[in-house]
Amino acid sequence: MSTQKSDDDAQSEIVLTLEPDPDGDSSEQADDELVGELLGAVLEVQAEREAQEQAEAERRAAERIDGVELGRLVALGEDGPKVTYPSCPTANGLVARCAAQLDDSHVGGRVALLFEGGDPGRPMVVGPIHNDQAEGEIEHPAITGLAITESDSRIDIRCKKAIGVSVGKATIIITPKGQIVVKGKHVLHHASAVNRIRGATVKIN
């Protein structure tokens, strides 16, 4: 008897080939040896399958998320809201199911997430975070909605309203809709390398 084993993603399979005894020995001892080899092969395949199932169960248990995780709403599309979160399996975020009312004002803000079956690849938005203040943010004591975040490389200022900075006759205004207005008596653009101006339409004067 010869044994041949094939591996498959769905299951393991063992093929037994019975070869005639050249001496014509069909004794009871030979039959017992044949049964023993057959049982050993079956038990080996079964042990391998159980080990694979156990490893997969342990992996899923380690990745399982049973509680609420905070993420960020990246975009709203026809397929649903796209979110990112610390345990997200993709770098660009995933489209989530939604159990809350969301609009464009929530894009960029943080949201509370649950996961179907604890699977980190199946997020569900349960609601936006209204007092959205991420870890490390310091809310300005005198201005509601203004938060300052400091990292190793930069300081970020976030605000839900338009921000204007004025010094004498020079003004810079940034609005939540993405508009940036620069006004001044003299405006200088200087770059030590390439200075590019890009836009769907570029108008001068």
Keywords:
205 residues; alpha+beta; OB fold (Dihydrolipoamide Acetyltransferase, E2P); 3 domains; six-stranded mixed sheet; three-stranded antiparallel sheet; 1 helix; 14 strands; 18% helix; elongated
How would you summarize what this structure contains?
This protein is α+β, with helices and mostly antiparallel strands and 205 residues long. Helix content is 18%, strand content 34%.
Walk me through this protein's architecture.
The chain is of the alpha+beta class. It folds into 3 domains: 2-63, no CATH class; 69-128, OB fold (Dihydrolipoamide Acetyltransferase, E2P) (Beta Barrel), CATH 2.40.50; 137-183, no CATH class. Helix content is 18%, strand content 34%. It has one helix at residues 28-63; strands at 2-7, 12-17, 69-77, 80-84, 94-95, 97-98, 110-115, 123-128, 137-139, 146-150, 155-159, 163-167, 170-174, 180-183. The strands form 4 sheets. The chain has a 6-stranded mixed β-sheet, with no helix packed on it. A 3-stranded antiparallel β-sheet has the order 9-10-11, with no helix packed on it. A hairpin with a 4-residue loop joins strand 10 (146-150) and strand 11 (155-159).
Radius of gyration: 32 Å
Count of helices? 1
The string of secondary-structure elements, in order, is EEHEEEEEEEEEEEE
The overall strand count is: 14
Q: Report the end-to-end length measured between terminal Cα atoms.
A: 91 Å
The best one-word shape is: elongated
Oligomer: single chain
Q: Look at the helices and sheets and give the structural class.
A: alpha+beta
User: How many structural domains can be distinguished in the coordinates?
Assistant: 3
Q: What is the mean predicted local confidence, pLDDT?
A: 78
- List low-pLDDT spans: none
Helix content estimate: 10-25%
Which sequence of strands runs across the widest sheet?
Answer: 5-4-3-7-8-6
